[in-house]
Amino acid sequence: MLEYTVFLLIISAFLMLAFKKDLIAIFSTAASFIIICMAFLFKNIETVRFGGWAPPLGIVWVADKFGLFIAILITGVSFLVALYSTKYIKEKKHRFYALLCLLTAGLLGVSLTGDIFNMYVFFEIMSISSYAIVSFFLDKDAIEGALKYLIIGSLSSSFILIGIALLYGLTGTLNMADLVIKISHTPPYLTAFGLILIGFAFKSAIIPFHAWKPDAIQGTPIPAGIIFTTASVTIGIYGITRIMFIFNLLTLTTAFIFFGVVTMIIGAILALIQINVKRMLAYSCISQVGYITMAIGLGTRSGLISGFYHILNNILIEALLFASIGCVIYATKETSLDKISVKNNTLLIATSIGILSLAGVPLFNGFVSKWLIYTASLEVNPSLTVIAVVISAITLAYGVKIISIFFNPSGKTIKIPKAMLVPVVVLAFLCILIGIFPHIGLSLVEPAVNALLNQNHYLTTVLG
Amino acid sequence: MLITLITSLVLGIIGVFCVVVKKNLIKKIVGLSILTNSVHLLLISIGFRPQGIAPIITRSNQIIFASKAVDPLPQALVLTSIVIQLSVTALALGITVMAFRHFKTLDTDKINKLRG
Predict the structure, then answer these.
(1) A168 contacts in B (CB within 8 Å)?
(2) Is A173 at the interface with chain B, CB within 8 A?
(3) A281 in a domain, yes or no?
(4) Cα–Cα distance, A398 to A264 (Å, whole number)
(5) SS3 label, residue B107
(6) Count of domains observed in chain B
(7) pLDDT tens, A136-168?
(8) In chain A, how many domains are there?
(9) Does the distance separating the beta carbons of B32 and A154 come in below 8 Å?
(10) Residue A78 · residue A6 · CB < 8 Å
(11) Is some CB atom of chain B closer than 8 A to the CB atom of A273?
């Protein structure tokens, strides 16, 4: 059943170009979201064998709870983005939707596949549609962002391919479950591991591999920006975690904590000095990725839970902030923080919810995951907790800078189309809902962590 | 076997060097192609076998097939990767054309307006 979601998305991308109806894209993203949710609720682990070949010979898709957790987030975001762009994109809308469907298909394929080369192929489908979507407006910013993204992105993809080639040469298999059994921790294997890891680190924009991100975000249309700061980042982290899982290196702590902390600090400081609001949000996303990397790098079960919870919250918060600021940009055609001044109560409330969640204020969802990160890092090293708390304060500082655009007395009142307000309101509602009832998020996150830690179940299900 | 590995390593280093150091966009794209082709060479050399035969089962070669045929999987991977590389290069060249129309140059230092 699951494989049809990706087929549906790819086919609807081409139907979109032929028939130019927005409903096709909205329907296909919504349908895949519902199918994935059903699978998460009712199936523990599902395998799809293509061509009837038994693994490890044939290509196999494995949807365990971890992959499905990521897939739910991706399809949910792209459904909201599809709704949002009905009004935001005015010209060549069918092309945008076609690219959006392909992008979602690629992301979904990466999260559901159980074959490492298949993962690379979907990764490239996702990357190529990302490059195209960044250059969508074809103006100076868009072209420059797309060029940087394309060159850095292709370089990182090549690293992943070299890593996969080495792995195949060493083990003679491409199936992830089979790799887990055949892998040893000798230098050639670790070279392959490092190469693949660097490739995914580029995608999730962990510092020092972040240079493309703010430029790409500045040029891209806002709806695609939502996908880049949420789903693309998430898939990078998914790839890193999967690779650690294949290599049994879930305890590779020091490097991850180091890069996580560096990303957290530099991202927050660079966000503080930005004038362009899109770049500021891009850096804030990088900073949040630092939190996630650090939490996953802690290596403990509580660390993983807090990291995954922050993946969920990061998606909700960044999507909310991008969507609500995007409404402002839609109305004013202005991205510099100095020049925007508007009045709109719905957007003011939504943005405030986003900022407070991002800074980790109690009763909002950011608080839940940040609290989990604080307690998890306290078990490992108290100084990490101190850094995390301080960075939260810096987050609030640049958040206030964003919110100040609504408080200028000379600001003019703006009207926003309903189709754009619906995603904003839904995301703001979810932020508060998870903040007040944290166990809703935990019911998604805990199965994912259990699936990741319970390696034997994965192996026996796939290899039979 | 060894000589193909060394060649692919050298090609890979040339490719990365081109992408990182060269300032001209076209040269960067050429560098990307060289890098990807070095990976293709690596993949093909992994499946290589001295005096191997093509991995196609016919009536006459069934007995010696398993001991003689080269590994067909890397070749399939390379075909897939070539298709991907083709589309990346096409897209890159297309965007480069647009960049030239906007900036009237292919020098990456002069295109670099967005910073920080």
Answers:
(1) 43, 46, 73-74, 77
(2) no
(3) yes
(4) 14
(5) strand
(6) 1
(7) 999 888 999 999 999 999 999 999 999 999 999
(8) 1
(9) yes
(10) no
(11) yes
Backbone angles phi, psi at A174, to 5 degrees: -120, -5
CA distances (Å), origin A346, targets A141, A315, B8: 30, 20, 58
Across the range A225-236, mean pLDDT stands at 91
* Beta pairing, strands A412-413 & A60-63: unpaired
Partners of B16 on chain A (C-beta within 8 Å) are 155
Cβ–Cβ contact A124 with B under 8 A: yes
Other CB atoms within a 10 A radius of the CB of residue A407 amount to 10
- Residue B100 structural domain: 2-111
Identify which of A107, A109, A143, A113 has the alpha carbon closest to the alpha carbon of residue A127.
A107
**Where are the alpha helices (H) located in A89-134, listed in sequence order?**
93-112, 116-134
Residue B35 placed within a domain: yes
pLDDT digits (tens, 9 = 90+) for B49-97: 888 888 888 888 788 887 888 888 899 999 999 999 999 999 999 999 9
Q: Within 10 A of A329 (CB to CB), how many other CB atoms are there?
A: 18
From B39, B99, B108, residue closest to A161, measured CB to CB? B39
Dihedral sign, CA of A341, A347, A351, A352? positive
Contacts with B116 (C-beta within 8 Å, 6 or more apart), sequence order: A214, A270, A273, A274, A279
Give the whole-angstrom CA distance, residue B51 versus residue B70.
9
- Answer whether residue B116 shows pLDDT above 50: no
At A254, which amino acid appears?
T
CB distance A336 to A94 below 8 Å = no
The reply to whether A158 falls in a domain is no
What ipTM was predicted for this assembly? 0.94
Q: Is A214 on the interface with B (CB under 8 A)?
A: yes
Cα separation of B43 and B22, whole Å? 27
**Is pLDDT larger for residue A250 or for residue A3?**
A3
Among residues A402, A325, A324, the alpha carbon closest in space to that of A359 is found at A402
Q: Rounded to the nearest 5°, which phi and psi values hold at A287? A: -60, -40
- CATH number (domain holding residue B83): 1.10.287.3510
Task: For chain B, give the mean pLDDT.
Answer: 89
Please enumerate in sequence order all residues whose Cβ is within 8 A of that of A186, keeping only pairs 6 or more positions apart, or say none. none
Q: Residues A298, A377: contact at Cβ < 8 Å?
A: yes
Question: Which residues in chain B are contacts of A59 at CB distance < 8 A?
Answer: none
Task: Report the distance separating Cα B107 and Cα B97, nearest Å.
Answer: 13
Structure confidence by residue, pLDDT tens digits, B13-23: 999 999 999 99
Reading the block at residue A464, the tokens are 């039979």
Using DSSP, state whether A445 is helix, strand or coil.
Answer: helix
Look at A150 and B116 and tell me if their CB atoms are within 8 Å: no
Q: Which domain holds residue A444?
A: 255-464
Residue A166 lies in a domain: no
What whole-number distance in Å separates Cα of residue A294 and Cα of residue A373? Answer: 9
**Distance between CA A283 and CA A415 in Å, rounded?**
28
- For residue A199, give the amino acid letter: G
Q: Which candidate from B12, B95, B102 shows the least CB-CB separation from A150?
A: B95
Closest-CA residue to A98 (of A8, A4, A17): A17
A207/A359 Cα distance (integer angstroms): 21
Residue from A411, A406, A281 nearest A346 by CA? A406
Q: Among A66, A442, A379, which Cα is nearest to A253's?
A: A379
